[in-house]
Amino acid sequence: MSYAKPYKGIRVIDMSQAIAGPYAAAILARLGADVIKIEPERGDWGRGVGKTYAGGQTVHTLLANLGKRSICVDLKNPKGPDVVRTLLRDADIFIESFRPGVTERLGFGYDAVKAINPRIIYLSVSGFGQRGPFAERPGTDGIMQAFSGFMGGNKGFDGLPHRSNVVLMDLSAALYNVQALQAALWARQSETAGRYIDNSLLQSATAFQNINLAVQVLEGERSQPPAYPVATFETADGYVVCGVLFDREFKPFMEMLGIGDIADDERLTTGLLRYQNRQLIDEPIRKAVANFKADDLCAKLRELRMLHERINSYEDFMAHPQTEEMEAIYWHDYPGIGKIPLANIPGTAKLGEEPEMLHAPLLGEHTDAILSEAGLEPAEIDALEAAGAINRKLAKAS
Asked: Which residues are catalytic?
């Protein structure tokens, strides 16, 4: 065990798909766990999301499966479930993301898995949870952004609800999954049995937005902003986000823009008053800012020590000296795919130090190694493939 790889020796059986489960398992792999990805014959459905590259990979499967090993098992084949049961005997964590009741029908509900391995930590990831009137509904990130109130609270200047292009509900669920699994692993040191963990996009969306939910209850739909003006402004060559956080900043800000006389109006002395009378300042500020270039405006705002930043594109952000200095991104060239950015995750070893952490497995790529470690002879593995219980076709063809 080490700080870089604290979960070395921990085995994770990842039967989840999409993002919330797989990305959590990928973080555990970065922390040293041996993560075995069990996929159906068609592969994790992420292998069909977006453009397909060499080896049947997509950007989704690359980033959600880094550092894992893959085995393709047909759970509907009479011999398929036995393969998984064999792997579960020595596992520490089992992750599934089926709709409620599916794992029970497949023979891998918590009670069934616990009977195989009493110390297993079992994580169920779902959209709406394991019970309730919406439990059977599919719950994707976009659906949960709508259901949880996020989109309703994320209105644009057009007054319409907007979805975030970042899959916030999935990613926040993944991080809560990691937190719960890590806590369970720590607690299991003094426990004789494992535990069942139930997480859903609904529960994670609630936790993720707790501040917003509390503000809604206490202040209502039209809650006043804590400061004003705070907004995105269009300059002559780009956008800048900035704001008057403290009342003392308002006058210097307006003077810098060349419209300082407006700041003398008694109706604009506090953030609340400025918000209530925003029709007095919004348009003058907009017109004044439009005369600046973005970098020039940022320079002026730095002199005033006001919070601000130029709005970057993804390309700007990745190429920025600060991003490079912090080693936030490791660039790796995948044959047949190209050079892509991989994020270094805080608290994990830097990418590039271990080649296996840069590899996302082909479908069924590690079948032989995984089953050999489980005690199966080559002839037994071949027999399982002949019977249709496992599939090594894609791995063999690549």
From this structure: 170
